[in-house]
Amino acid sequence: MTRLLVLNGNTTEAVTERIAAAARAAAPAGVAIEAATAPYGLPLIVTRADWLLAGPPILAALAAHRGAYDAAVIAVFGDPALEAAKLLLDVPVIGLSEAAFHAAAMLGRRFGIVSFSAALRPMFEDCLDHHGLRGRCAGFRMGPPDAAYPAVFGAAEQAALLALVRDSIAQDGAEAVILAGGPLAGLAPLLQPAVPVPLIDGTAAAVRLAAALAGLPRPARPRAARPLSGYGPEIAALYAGSGPS
Amino acid sequence: MTRLLVLNGNTTEAVTERIAAAARAAAPAGVAIEAATAPYGLPLIVTRADWLLAGPPILAALAAHRGAYDAAVIAVFGDPALEAAKLLLDVPVIGLSEAAFHAAAMLGRRFGIVSFSAALRPMFEDCLDHHGLRGRCAGFRMGPPDAAYPAVFGAAEQAALLALVRDSIAQDGAEAVILAGGPLAGLAPLLQPAVPVPLIDGTAAAVRLAAALAGLPRPARPRAARPLSGYGPEIAALYAGSGPS
Amino acid sequence: MTRLLVLNGNTTEAVTERIAAAARAAAPAGVAIEAATAPYGLPLIVTRADWLLAGPPILAALAAHRGAYDAAVIAVFGDPALEAAKLLLDVPVIGLSEAAFHAAAMLGRRFGIVSFSAALRPMFEDCLDHHGLRGRCAGFRMGPPDAAYPAVFGAAEQAALLALVRDSIAQDGAEAVILAGGPLAGLAPLLQPAVPVPLIDGTAAAVRLAAALAGLPRPARPRAARPLSGYGPEIAALYAGSGPS
Amino acid sequence: MTRLLVLNGNTTEAVTERIAAAARAAAPAGVAIEAATAPYGLPLIVTRADWLLAGPPILAALAAHRGAYDAAVIAVFGDPALEAAKLLLDVPVIGLSEAAFHAAAMLGRRFGIVSFSAALRPMFEDCLDHHGLRGRCAGFRMGPPDAAYPAVFGAAEQAALLALVRDSIAQDGAEAVILAGGPLAGLAPLLQPAVPVPLIDGTAAAVRLAAALAGLPRPARPRAARPLSGYGPEIAALYAGSGPS
Amino acid sequence: MTRLLVLNGNTTEAVTERIAAAARAAAPAGVAIEAATAPYGLPLIVTRADWLLAGPPILAALAAHRGAYDAAVIAVFGDPALEAAKLLLDVPVIGLSEAAFHAAAMLGRRFGIVSFSAALRPMFEDCLDHHGLRGRCAGFRMGPPDAAYPAVFGAAEQAALLALVRDSIAQDGAEAVILAGGPLAGLAPLLQPAVPVPLIDGTAAAVRLAAALAGLPRPARPRAARPLSGYGPEIAALYAGSGPS
Amino acid sequence: MTRLLVLNGNTTEAVTERIAAAARAAAPAGVAIEAATAPYGLPLIVTRADWLLAGPPILAALAAHRGAYDAAVIAVFGDPALEAAKLLLDVPVIGLSEAAFHAAAMLGRRFGIVSFSAALRPMFEDCLDHHGLRGRCAGFRMGPPDAAYPAVFGAAEQAALLALVRDSIAQDGAEAVILAGGPLAGLAPLLQPAVPVPLIDGTAAAVRLAAALAGLPRPARPRAARPLSGYGPEIAALYAGSGPS
């Protein structure tokens, strides 16, 4: 049995439940999903400042569950705390943008990024550069920057999203399309029948890739204890030198 | 049960057996491995011309087994026939270089490529550009271009390889290292205890990632029949329009 | 006398004739053009899979004429078999996309790519990356993906094409424009008077550049015989070790 | 009078004093330097995890002094909290790596990066990508990864550093050289007479560039209050909506 | 007192006066501005040929004033003579495009370029590549290529410009916007109140950055005398070996 | 008959004669070579400042011969005046670095650059970026920066050069090698028999490519007269509006 921790980096429990459901739906056989919520921080993560401040609570949650998972998903587009977590933990950690980009790149030569609102574009631009996959990106198709996400994605919203997906394919030459933004989680399987290229859902991609990475050999990295002040006991434990993993 | 076809693109059965063993060792629970050998072509794939000529027999083998696998691995560094196969088949297909690069990129910020002989370097250069991941590559550490691969990797050969791995880490700043070249398959778990960063084996990476991709939604792509002459019935079938998958 | 082989990579003789005429019109003094047709494969090359399957018949035709030409043009946008041919033959071989890109880059700082139909865009995207000249490309202006090429380019079609060329110049800043796609061969000299930047025709560019490269010194590359199965005698001959060139 | 806040992102007061002295030595006329120390976190910032955890205390310190400076320098190589600070504050904020790269790029076509120890290389690799200036970097010349920084840079250490600088110029073609790493602060003016290209000190570059940016027009960016939990009153104030600046 | 030479590279005195005023308005305390005009050449610099021919008179003017300034600004978008001047003079020299790009990059993750007319686009494309900052550019928003610059920027022209700025932000994701083209000098502070991201004026950026660089240590570069014919005494003096600076 | 003007951009007549001989040796049948020397400027072009100052005399010489050639070669590594000449003249103009890069790229996937002295490296770095072909370059192998070019390339010098060529192939993976630097002109055919990849001579490449481009259609670009002062009658004529070509 492979155990995955899927960590909602914001503080909204309802989002955690939605992510957990999506993760469980995507999990391969033999993989158990545990979901957790950031213990403090932001109810919604939107800006670069949010990503930074979401980092310590994400690390704290990852630390609190140490030993209870074989790989972790930081279930936030923008991948807050990702590089720190990769360094501090002895198991693979993967982010939502990272997973979506890599899965899309393996399923199509050039991938488009589609979102209901343009508010997340700076984050995706940053992530494309950070993960070094800008050359595989065909471009963005996004709604207006101030679009409010609807509570429910009804027929009209789905039609609007499909129109963006089709533009991405026809105008930008996308051969796979990422549905970007937390509220779009779970829509990919629904819309896929109407779309002739793979639709990528970040949570599904991350769960499947995290399970894949969990099975690869990994180095034992003994870590010396290093001084750190001002953080709670979970994060402090990550700086106390190698513990169980 | 997820069924993976692991296809040896050269015609040497002994290599197929070695790859099959490595694939089975790396397969997640619930994943069955079937191995196949290219029906014609080259006993050893080394040059760019080899990659082209290995392509049709690889497509033929993929076509011959159609319907019997949920994802396929083209188990050749250099990824011959990869883009054609992604287009013609209704299931995910992944190459060894592609898998090694993506796995390495998810496990370390910059990855090194280590090989016993420099003969494969042009292929890896081409693949880095093709997959758009050159920016994540820290560089190459390779033996002399005319190094013959030893029949067995004994202590001396392992020590030589470890020295290259350590140069990749210390001189090039690699944070993950790909062991490149078919004959190195299976060495990663053996050498990992002596290495402080993840060692990537192409076959293991490809098997795990193929299983991951097999579970994602995919488009139904009806294909019109198109005329093709001069190829055998398997490849011809791929051009006969959508069949079972 | 420099002898050029201009090879139509598809099996349609009428296309070979059209290409041969365009090649002869563009050939410098002292250069003789011989045209040949791929002995099998596809009547029309459109997809990545087509490029792969067009490769062996192209190699076969190049091999069949070995010794009778000083340089060869693979007269297919997308450059199938190009890298294999460069490796296996002792004379320069150039592809249509390759030639168009290099000629355009020497005649304008940034070149646009214009086509009647968007169907060839993935091919051009791939070729830009493969030849490393994406940074010189100002962008694409193409008709709808499902546009059927007209049998004859009358005044209306020419006007539509000119409109795309002008958008490429005015909107994208193109300083040279490639007319992309086999059916556009021969139009560049016709449209040039109406366009203030160089219009690049792939066949003409390839013929002129192939003749240029034919005159440069080249290495003698003795090749050891290597085993290959499943291909006809022409390709087999390329693997039989160095022959006459 | 322009007021600069120079913020030491680690918790070591002695480092703050050294940075403050270097900053004052480099400050233009009419610029007053105030130095501050991160209120908690790490005594020494080395790893990617450190950068993340140094972020909130840096934001807290920047927030605590809000209204008392016209521009800020985050005086840590690696630029922790930089993008969040740029977003949350109404005055320009610049990081040490960012400043060193931009100053070096304006003073030489290609810049080398020289350091006593290779431990900081991953950070510099990340920063080159983040700031988009990798194409201007000629390469790294660094001591061994485990080199301990000497308490004092005596003649022997200076000679060792000069040898690295000369390699950067002669072997890599550097036309400007960044002395990288906090402990090298203040050495540039000392070594410059022996070096034929500009030597860049991060603190000096950042102080001069921050003063430059402080004088440019900037937008008024009213910020809506947004919920945030688990952080102290300084950071909370940054999320309370626009305050004085 | 820091002395800056701001050099108008065209021969139009009225432009020199306008630039001098803008430079003085942007100069930090303790910085004196001297303005000069190219002694010959072009009244208006637009094309790549113009940049080349503007080069020698710019060098002549820089040489004529040698010893009287601590840093120089070549106040022409396109940066004519920039690399030669950096090499031949012992003080920092900065160009308008160079300064605008670096300032914009320090003030926003991705910057847009806005201009009244598209005529300058090729120049900006060239400069982005030359300075290696294309990756930071979000795109161009420009008026028609044949737009004549109005003598005065009245309300209508300002509104048109603001519309382009807003497109750059909303459509391209620009987080800072460069107002490009000499005639736009001085507009940034006027329009800034209506724009939520930093507006960059080339002259202001160059003056502030030149003052910043003037205070950094610089190498003594003795230069051997080298033969040069056909140029006037000022340029000849630059080739006569090291003189006063 | 196609007429090529091969222009030596420095003022040394002996170099012109050597270049003319090399150009004639490489010229295709039906191509006549006329050689010319820059009327003033530098006897040897080495630095970036030299390239700028070599520009106007090169333009003057190109203008003086207008109407007497169908394409021109600026026979200087570093390509001074190249972009201006392309713009001002109605016939193709090609530079030595430009030609060497494009020819090498068409003859090998990745090309090395070999030179007797490292003094030209900054120039080649700049040219790689300018022509957008850095991704095709495998690296530099050069003698010491202060190496004096020998008057004659005897056996010892040729052996030293061959050693650099072999390092480029074996260490850097070069599949074609450019012999860089004027004094190496003419050596490629001599050394080619000892080298297993194509050796590229700049002059030969430029002559063949210029002849190739001369045969392609080109736009009629009427040019309005524009004011220019301070230059001689030849350059002034280029600004007097369209003349005969």
TrEMBL record, chains A, B, C, D, E, F:
Q: Which family does it belong to?
A: Belongs to the HyuE racemase family.
* Name this protein carries in UniProt: Asp/Glu/hydantoin racemase
Origin species = Roseicella frigidaeris
Q: What PANTHER family would the database entry show?
A: PROTEIN DCG1
Query: Taxonomically, which superkingdom?
Result: Bacteria
Question: InterPro entries, per this entry?
Answer: Asp/Glu/hydantoin_racemase, Hydantoin_racemase-like, Iso_Racemase_Enz_sf
Q: Which molecular function GO terms apply here? A: amino-acid racemase activity
